[in-house]
Structure to design on (403 residues):
């Protein structure tokens, strides 16, 4: 996994070039068609691309060689993630999309041997998909210590009952990791919940619907499921780690996850920026004079370039520190990149849409897909306001303790 640092740094530029070529030659020509769907009809095509990626030795770049990957460290993988992010199917084709990548990390670090054999190995090979069910419609996901989903120990099993939503990629997944309360009496609210694996063919589990997002009910790995657990019985050895460790494990999962998301967003920014520049140059406004001659458009191009560059430097700096010191040591930086890059992403997509005029809001380019799909970036993995508050409180605390 990402902790493995055995990929030679001097070979990285050539590897990145291989990814760039694959993404631009194999994915750019088809990705708009695939995401405008119906997505499921493109699964055979995506499968053939995955086979091609495997044959080229590019599949699952975040995994160690022993696990079928390349053995990239966090910073190296971040650079690959930016390239894959330029296509909305990039991470899926290379089997490093959320939430699978986070679940792989969790099971790699904390799964039992049996869990790794049954769930991690097929996930790493891309034979199955997974999802992660924590957020509940009834409670504020921004402060997930409040959960109604219960997992009660009955003999050698857990009985799980609860209602979740925004379980990304639930449609067609083989299993979910569910966050449920096992220790309601624990003194700290952070020690009440646990993570438990639930196979999704369990009769006590139900996918109620793929939640439509801004007019589009995503399917398969693009879905966000509303799901129910009713008298859902799983063997007790489906617990990951210890009872009450759910939040501690969630923190481990989220740290590198925010680096992956931010670099994917920077990839989107680069593709969108390219579309914006091309349109500005090709759209004739006055006779023989393109849109690109207008100063407002030039400002948007310049501001976008500066913001994308700043984002990349900030995220890579955080990744380097995290690699060296661990996720806990870079809490401030993680919060900073999470809200900063999500904001840049929104601004760059919005400017590109404006430059495209009416074309920008059609489904004839990827802009409208990303505009809808990525609005969630300012909400998931902690809304902006939570990260800004975390950052400011931490800064102010340092002031107070330093006098
Ligand atoms: C695209 C997408 C994918 C997701 N995937 C998953 C998934 O796979 N699994 C999963 O379990 N969940 C998932 N989620 C859910 C996500 O984790 C929650 O949406 C998020 O934690 C926010 O919780 P909430 O939606 O309940 O908003 P609430 O907690 O109700 O917050 C609403 C708003 O209140 C404001 N707010 C909250 N806290 C503060 C604060 N401290 N200070 C000031 N303002 C505040 C913010 O503006 C926030 O947007 C996903 C969400 C999205 C949008």
């Amino acid at each position: 996994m990402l902790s493995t640092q055995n990929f030679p740094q001097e070979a990285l530029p050539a590897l990145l070039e291989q990814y760039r070529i694959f993404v631009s030659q194999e994915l750019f020509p088809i990705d708009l068609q695939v995401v405008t769907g119906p997505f499921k009809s493109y699964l055979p095509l995506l499968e053939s691309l995955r086979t091609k990626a495997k044959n080229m030795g590019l599949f699952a770049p975040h995994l160690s060689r022993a696990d079928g990957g390349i053995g990239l460290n966090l910073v190296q993988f971040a650079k690959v993630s930016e390239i894959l992010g330029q296509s909305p199917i990039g991470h899926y084709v290379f089997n490093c999309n959320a939430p699978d990548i986070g679940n792989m990390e969790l099971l790699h670090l904390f799964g039992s041997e049996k869990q790794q054999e049954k769930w991690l190995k097929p996930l790493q090979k891309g034979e199955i998909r997974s999802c992660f069910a924590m957020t509940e419609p009834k409670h504020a996901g921004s402060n997930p210590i409040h959960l109604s989903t219960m997992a009660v120990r009955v003999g050698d099993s857990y009985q799980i009952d609860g209602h979740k939503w925004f379980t990304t990629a639930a449609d067609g997944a083989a299993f979910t990791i569910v966050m449920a309360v096992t220790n309601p009496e624990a003194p700290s609210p952070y020690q009440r919940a646990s993570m438990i694996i639930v196979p999704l063919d369990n009769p006590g589990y139900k996918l109620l619907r793929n939640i439509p997002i801004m007019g589009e009910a995503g399917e398969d790995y693009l879905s966000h499921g509303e799901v129910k657990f009713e008298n859902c019985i799983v063997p007790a050895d489906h617990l990951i780690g210890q009872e009450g460790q759910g939040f501690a494990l969630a923190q481990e999962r989220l740290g590198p996850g925010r680096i992956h998301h931010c670099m994917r967003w920077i990839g989107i920014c680069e593709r969108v920026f390219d579309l914006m520049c091309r349109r500005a140059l090709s759209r004739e406004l006055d006779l023989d004079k393109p849109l690109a001659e207008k100063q407002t458009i030039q400002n948007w191009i310049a501001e976008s370039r500066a913001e994308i560059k700043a984002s990349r430097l900030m995220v890579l700096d955080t990744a380097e520190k995290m690699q060296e010191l661990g996720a806990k040591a870079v809490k401030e930086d993680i919060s900073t990149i999470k809200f900063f890059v999500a904001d840049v992403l929104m601004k760059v997509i919005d400017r590109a849409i404006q430059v495209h005029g009416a074309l920008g809001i059609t489904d004839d380019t990827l802009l409208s897909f990303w505009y809808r799909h990525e609005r969630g970036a300012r909400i998931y993995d902690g809304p902006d306001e939570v990260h800004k508050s975390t950052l400011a409180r931490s800064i102010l605390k340092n002031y107070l303790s330093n006098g």
Summary: The chain has twelve helices and twelve strands.
